[in-house]
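Quick one, C-alpha cells below. Sequence please?
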C-alpha cells in the first residue's frame, strides 16, 4: 500500500491551489448576502479544465484518474473560499457528467459532454420531490410515452444548479404501477417547452449556489432524450449517488485544511494572559481534534477514490465518506470559530459563513441519517 502522491500529482494540486487563489477571488460577503452565483468564476474553472477532469479526452475532458481528480478537488477547496461555487461544480461533475458518461448513448455523449466540459454548460440532477426525497420509489413525476416522445408532468424541488442549469437529468416513472421498474431518466435542456424553473426559498448556507424548484407541465421530449433504457432510472440514480456521495465533499477536505491552518496561525499570534492562546491546553486540543478529523477525512476520500479507480463498487464506502466528512466539516468549522472567540463570530472574519455552508453538507446526496441507514444495510442490519 502506497500512501504517497507522485510528483506530477503534487505539482498539479499546487497549480490548482494557485489558480483558485489568484482567479477565484471575489467579494464573498456581498455575494453570500445577495445570493449571487459567480458565473465568471465558473467560466474560469471551465477554461482551466476543472469541469472535465474525470471525463475522457474524446468528449472534451482531461481524463484524469479518479484519485488525481479527488486530490485536485481538495486543492480547489483549499484555494477557493466560495463553497457555493465549489458545491455547484461538484454536483455538475458527479451527478451530471458521470451518469451521462456511463449511461448515455454515443450520440448523447458526443453532443453534451463537450458542452459541459469545455463550453461552460451547467448540469443539474433533479430527483427529489415534495413527497420523495431519499425515498426515490415514491416519486410522482410521470413520463407517459406517446409514439416517439414522452410527456412529462410533475414537480421537483431542492434542485442544485436549477436556476442556472443548461441541461437537466430528470427522473420520472413511465408507469406508477411498475414501482421501481418504471423509474426512467431523461436529458432535458433548459428551454424545453413545459419546463418551468423557479428559485427556491433562500438557504442557510452555500447561498452562492442556486437551488430551484422545477415544474413539468406536459413537457414533451423525444425518445432520444431518454438516458439509458426504460426502467433503468434506479440504476442511474444509485450510480449517481455513489459518485456524488463519495466525492461531492472532496473540496470540503481542502476547506478543512485551510480552516486548520488559519486557526493555528491565530492560536500562535493572538495572546491572552501574556502568552499565545495556543499554549492553553483547551485551545491546543481543539486544533489537535481538527487535525485528526482532517486526516481521517482524507483517508475516507482517498479510499473511495482508490476503489472507483479500480472499478470496485463503493456504495457503503461512499456513504461513510459523505457522513464522516460532512460531520467533521461542521465540527471543525465550529471549533475554528471558538478558537477565534468573538472575532470568529464577526461576518468579516468569514468563519460564520464556513459553518453555515458546512451544515448544508449534512443534507447533500441524502441526510446523515440516510447515510447511516445505507451503512447499516451493508452491515446486514
Amino acid at each position: 500500500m502506497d500512501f504517497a502522491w507522485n510528483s506530477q500529482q503534487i505539482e498539479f494540486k499546487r497549480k490548482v491551489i494557485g489558480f483558485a487563489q489568484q482567479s477565484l477571488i471575489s467579494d464573498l460577503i456581498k455575494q453570500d448576502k445577495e445570493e449571487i452565483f459567480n458565473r465568471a468564476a465558473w467560466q474560469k474553472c471551465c477554461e482551466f479544465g476543472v469541469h472535465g477532469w474525470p471525463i475522457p479526452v474524446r468528449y472534451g475532458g482531461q481524463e484524469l484518474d479518479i484519485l488525481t481528480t479527488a486530490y485536485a478537488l481538495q486543492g480547489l477547496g483549499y484555494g477557493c473560499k466560495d463553497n457555493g461555487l465549489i458545491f455547484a461544480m461538484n454536483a455538475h461533475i458527479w451527478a451530471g457528467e458521470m451518469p451521462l458518461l456511463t449511461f448515455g448513448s454515443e450520440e448523447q455523449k458526443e453532443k453534451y459532454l463537450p458542452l459541459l466540459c469545455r463550453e461552460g454548460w451547467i448540469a443539474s440532477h433533479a430527483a427529489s420531490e415534495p413527497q420523495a426525497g431519499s425515498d426515490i420509489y415514491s416519486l410522482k413525476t410521470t413520463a407517459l410515452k406517446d409514439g416517439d416522445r414522452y410527456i412529462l408532468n410533475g414537480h421537483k424541488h431542492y434542485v442544485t444548479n436549477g436556476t442556472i442549469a443548461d441541461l437537466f437529468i430528470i427522473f420520472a416513472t413511465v408507469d406508477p404501477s411498475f414501482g421501481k421498474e418504471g423509474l426512467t431518466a431523461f436529458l432535458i435542456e433548459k428551454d424545453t417547452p413545459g419546463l418551468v424553473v423557479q428559485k427556491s426559498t433562500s438557504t442557510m448556507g452555500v447561498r452562492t449556489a442556486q437551488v430551484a424548484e422545477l415544474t413539468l407541465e406536459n413537457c414533451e421530449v423525444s425518445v432520444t432524450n431518454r438516458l439509458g433504457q426504460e426502467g433503468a432510472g434506479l440504476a442511474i440514480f444509485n450510480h449517481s449517488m455513489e459518485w456524488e456521495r463519495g466525492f461531492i465533499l472532496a473540496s470540503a477536505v481542502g476547506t478543512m485544511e485551510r480552516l486548520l491552518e488559519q486557526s493555528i496561525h491565530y492560536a500562535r499570534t493572538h495572546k491572552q494572559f501574556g502568552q499565545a492562546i495556543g499554549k492553553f491546553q483547551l485551545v491546543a486540543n481543539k486544533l489537535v481534534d481538527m487535525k485528526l478529523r482532517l486526516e481521517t477525512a482524507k483517508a475516507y476520500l482517498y479510499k473511495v477514490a482508490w476503489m472507483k479507480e479500480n472499478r470496485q463498487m463503493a456504495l457503503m464506502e461512499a456513504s461513510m465518506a459523505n457522513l464522516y466528512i460532512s460531520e467533521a466539516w461542521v465540527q471543525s468549522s465550529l471549533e475554528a470559530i471558538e478558537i477565534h472567540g468573538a472575532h470568529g463570530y464577526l461576518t468579516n472574519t468569514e468563519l460564520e459563513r464556513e459553518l453555515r455552508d458546512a451544515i448544508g453538507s449534512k443534507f447533500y446526496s441524502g441526510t446523515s441519517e440516510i447515510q447511516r441507514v445505507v451503512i447499516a444495510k451493508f452491515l446486514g442490519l
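The first helix runs from residue 7 to 23. The chain is about 50% helix and 15% strand.
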